[in-house]
């Protein structure tokens, strides 16, 4: 075999000595004819004998020397996978390709990430390799063209299910009338005719069921077995044996009625297609979080260049640019305030509802909203370096990572199919050569009985029917699971992390406390303060106004109004001068606070924002605004703890505020002062301790943590991005739904295990009976049908579940 040459990109070299060390290390490897490293270009050229070594060995060697090989990365969408076994086959095939360092398939998201050496392998090579396996790759650049492929798949599976149902119903009717208990039911003679049954069953078998034959062929071609093999094998046995019986019946003069099994094959295919329809529906809404995150970013920015203000696309803003942000506009990039004062709503990034006052020297975050003042901002981070871009990156990495899900059925099916086939062949041979030498029919019947009794209809139904019933009942409770894998994994959760704002609390500030000086009445003060704040755009002012109106107090327009940045407001109402704001504001106007300091500190210790009030230069009282706890949070957290779950609150708030709220809802564990990009790291810390973690949140800043967690739960009243990034959406916005989701998952998984017991034990226990010829094919068909009915009826019990609050 002739020598080959490859070029590797290397990072981490600090001097020419590093290059020399790499050269020596590579040159000493067996099979390497020549190795040279260009320090300036950070590249290594290696000539080698491919029969003795390969590129992956060079990469490993370079990494052992303390450097890193920089590979190209590409991400594909994958179409055509039917189970986890398909994902494993793609990974194995691509990993064996020369130049591919790693291949990672995410079956749930239907994506493939590959690291590769572009000098040895190309995207086209990878696409062609997987195409030969029966799958279709499309790069993310082409993803827009295929954005609705899942919707088309839903329509296709629904059409197949509808066709199969119409054709199967008469066949099912004939099977029911065979039983003595239902023999009184009317059955048209035409449906009993073998050729009519053949005409009804054939489209189901080869039109609707074509996908199973294609899938089985691809699996067997690649020396593996999946559910398609099981479905194709079982239905074909029943279908072709029925044709054989029909032909024999005709040869015998059409006397009596033959025992046919067309209905068994048709029912299996119909119900499995129904399961596939559910699976496609469950996956159809994944992977939209990234697009929605990017949609938050401002599209343009007002930039001052050469003394002229101009509007430029966001991509053209560079670090150091001075950006003008007007009231109501999005802050386009991360930066530092040079001039101006304003309150900035950072809830879409931080999750905290109360806007933050910004002035010279303060930092602002891209995609946040400037509420009420003009700001001049110096851009410090642009493009991929902004906080929003980092959140997008974290979500992408979390969603693209390989899910550690190995389906119980997929594992067993790989062994089950060949074992059953081999056993059936051995049984046939035993009967044909030993028990009844030369008697084909006597040998064929036990073999067919084994294949029919071991038919995978119950196996194929065991998981999807339970998931359909469980998720359907969950949906009625306001719990939307985005796929069977999430319904499965939720039952193993040990720790629940709750975001504070919008999850434990309501997520919007409210007027909570009013205290007035002895010389004033509460109604008078609320009228004056509400009227004074009426024209303010500040969210805290709006909370006061809404709170006053809720008490039925009428407001009037102030005759004069002045916002004092960083201090509060001054207004004239009914001829009286009203001051509302901070301690600094009171001191500025030389107003004695008359022992209000201790009361204010007490309010602040409770996590509230307190504001002082003065009327005509006299201290008049204190009002406080806070993000209040949801009425159901305390009881819901208690329910979680009763389920044996560790419950932790996670927030960007300061420790004092966080602990005050945690105490109010019965929590002892709090992680406070966490930045948006650190939330996912906190989840990973707990995971490294061996805990299965669920994250519950509603803000955009929660999206990375929701994606990293073993199970992400989004409050349905929260942001679309959090909902899309999560595995479960809690539509009611109530933390009781967290406990409900875990209970539903536990009950559903218990139901699935019961179904698998029916599917495997019931069917396989009859295989020895069939092997010795004591089980006629029609009895095997009835037993197979009964096992399917058992599975379906057991799954339907999930629809009756009532959760006790």
Short structural summary:
This protein has 805 residues and is an alpha+beta fold.
Q: What is the CATH C-level name of the domain at 480-505 and 630-746? A: Alpha Beta
Strand order of the largest sheet: 18-30-29-28-19-26-27
Shape: globular
Low-pLDDT segments: 141-148, 282-290, 397-406
What is the CATH architecture annotation of the domain at 480-505 and 630-746?
Answer: 3-Layer(aba) Sandwich
Give the percentage of residues in beta strands. 15-25%
Helical fraction: 40-55%
CATH topology of the domain at 480-505 and 630-746: Rossmann fold
Number of strands: 30
Number of helix segments? 29
What is the C-alpha radius of gyration, as a whole number of Å? 34 Å
Q: Specify the biggest β-sheet.
A: 7 strands, mixed
Mean pLDDT: 78
Class based on secondary structure composition and strand pairing: alpha+beta
Within CATH, the superfamily of the domain at 480-505 and 630-746 carries the name: HAD superfamily/HAD-like
Give the distance, in angstroms, between the N- and C-terminal Cα atoms: 72 Å
Give a verbal description of the structure:
It is found in: Cell membrane; Endomembrane system. Its main location: membrane. The N and C termini lie far apart (72 Å). Helices cover 47% and strands 20% of the residues. Strand 2 and strand 3 form a beta hairpin. By secondary structure, it is an alpha+beta fold. Among the domains are: 4-70, Alpha-Beta Plaits; 72-147, Alpha-Beta Plaits, CATH 3.30.70.100; 149-284, no CATH class; 299-388, Calcium-transporting ATPase, cytoplasmic transduction domain A, CATH 2.70.150.10; 480-505 and 630-746, HAD superfamily/HAD-like (Rossmann fold), CATH 3.40.50. The strands form six sheets. Strands 18-30-29-28-19-26-27 form a seven-stranded mixed β-sheet, sandwiched between helices. Strands 10-9-11-17-12-15 form a six-stranded antiparallel β-sheet, with no helix packed on it. The protein has a six-stranded antiparallel β-sheet with strand order 20-25-24-23-22-21, sandwiched between helices. Helix 6 packs antiparallel against helix 8 (227-251).
């Amino acid at each position: 075999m002739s020598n080959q040459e490859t070029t590797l990109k290397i990072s981490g070299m600090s001097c020419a000595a590093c290059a020399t060390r790499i050269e020596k290390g590579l040159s000493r490897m067996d099979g390497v004819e020549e190795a040279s490293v260009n320090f300036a270009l950070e590249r290594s050229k290696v000539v080698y004998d491919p029969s003795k070594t390969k590129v992956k060995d060079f990469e490993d060697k370079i990494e052992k020397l303390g450097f890193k090989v920089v590979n190209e990365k590409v991400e594909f969408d994958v179409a055509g996978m039917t189970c986890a076994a398909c994902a494993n086959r793609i990974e194995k095939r691509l990993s064996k390709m020369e130049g591919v360092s790693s291949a990672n398939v995410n079956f749930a998201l239907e994506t493939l990430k590959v690291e590769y050496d572009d000098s040895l392998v190309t995207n086209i090579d990878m696409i062609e390799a997987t195409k030969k396996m029966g799958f279709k790759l499309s790069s993310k650049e082409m993803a827009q063209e295929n954005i609705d492929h899942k919707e088309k798949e839903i329509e296709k599976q629904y059409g197949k299910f509808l066709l199969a149902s119409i054709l199967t119903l008469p066949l099912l009717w004939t099977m029911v009338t065979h039983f003595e208990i239902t023999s009184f039911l009317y059955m048209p003679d035409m449906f009993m005719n073998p050729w009519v049954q053949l005409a009804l069953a054939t489209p189901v078998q080869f039109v609707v069921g074509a996908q199973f034959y294609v899938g089985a062929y691809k699996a067997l071609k690649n020396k593996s077995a999946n559910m398609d093999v099981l479905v194709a094998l079982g239905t074909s046995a029943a279908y072709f044996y029925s044709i054989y019986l029909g032909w024999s019946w005709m040869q015998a003069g059409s006397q009596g009625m033959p025992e046919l099994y067309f209905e068994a094959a048709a029912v299996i295919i119909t119900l499995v297609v129904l399961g596939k329809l559910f699976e496609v529906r469950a996956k159809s809404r994944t992977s939209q979080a990234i697009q929605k995150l990017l949609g938050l970013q401002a599209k343009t920015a007002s930039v001052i260049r050469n003394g002229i203000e101009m509007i430029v696309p966001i991509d053209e803003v560079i670090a150091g640019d001075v950006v003008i942000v007007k009231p109501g506009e999005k802050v386009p990039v991360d930066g530092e305030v040079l001039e101006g004062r304003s309150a900035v709503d950072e809830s879409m990034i931080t999750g905290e509802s109360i806007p933050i006052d910004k002035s010279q020297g303060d930092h602002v975050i891209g995609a946040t909203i400037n509420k009420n003042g003009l700001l001049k901002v110096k851009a410090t981070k642009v493009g991929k370096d902004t906080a929003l871009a980092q959140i997008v990156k974290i979500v992408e990495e979390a969603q693209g990572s390989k899910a550690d899900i190995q389906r119980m059925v997929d594992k067993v099916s790989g062994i089950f199919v060949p074992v059953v086939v081999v056993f059936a062949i051995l049984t046939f041979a035993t009967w044909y050569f030993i028990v009844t030498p030369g008697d084909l029919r006597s040998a064929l019947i036990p073999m067919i009985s084994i294949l029919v009794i071991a038919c995978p209809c119950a196996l194929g139904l065991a998981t999807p029917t339970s998931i359909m019933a469980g998720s359907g009942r969950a949906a009625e409770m306001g719990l939307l699971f985005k796929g069977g894998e999430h319904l499965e994994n939720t039952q193993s959760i040990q720790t629940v992390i709750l975001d504070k704002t919008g999850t434990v609390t309501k997520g919007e500030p409210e007027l909570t406390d009013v205290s007035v000086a002895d010389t004033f009445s509460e109604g008078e003060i609320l009228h004056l303060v509400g009227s004074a704040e009426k024209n303010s755009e500040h969210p805290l002012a709006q909370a006061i106004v809404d709170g006053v109106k809720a008490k039925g107090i009428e407001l009037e327009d102030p005759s004069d109004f002045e916002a004092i940045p960083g201090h509060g407001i001054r207004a004239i109402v009914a001829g009286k001068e009203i001051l509302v704001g901070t301690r600094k504001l009171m001191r500025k106007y030389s107003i004695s606070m008359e022992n209000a300091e201790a009361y204010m500190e007490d309010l602040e210790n409770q996590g509230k924002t307190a504001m002082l009030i003065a009327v005509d230069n006299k201290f008049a009282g204190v009002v406080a605004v806070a993000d209040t706890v949801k009425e159901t949070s305390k009881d819901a957290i208690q329910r979680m703890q009763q389920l044996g779950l560790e419950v932790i609150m996670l927030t960007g708030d300061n420790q004092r505020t966080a602990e005050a709220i945690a105490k109010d809802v019965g929590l002892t564990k709090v992680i406070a002062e966490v930045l948006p990009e650190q939330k996912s790291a906190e989840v990973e810390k707990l995971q490294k301790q061996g805990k299965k973690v669920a994250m519950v949140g509603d803000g955009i800043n929660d999206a990375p943590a929701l994606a990293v967690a073993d199970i992400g739960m989004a409050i349905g009243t929260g942001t679309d991005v959090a909902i899309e990034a999560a595995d479960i959406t809690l539509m009611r916005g109530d933390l009781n739904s967290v406990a409900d989701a875990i209970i539903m998952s536990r009950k559903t998984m218990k139901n699935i295990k019961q179904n698998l017991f029916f599917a495997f034990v019931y069917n396989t226990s009859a295989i020895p009976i069939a092997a010795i010829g004591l089980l006629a094919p029609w009895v095997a068909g009835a037993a197979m049908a009964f096992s399917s009915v058992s599975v379906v009826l057991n799954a339907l019990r999930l629809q009756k579940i009532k959760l006790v609050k």
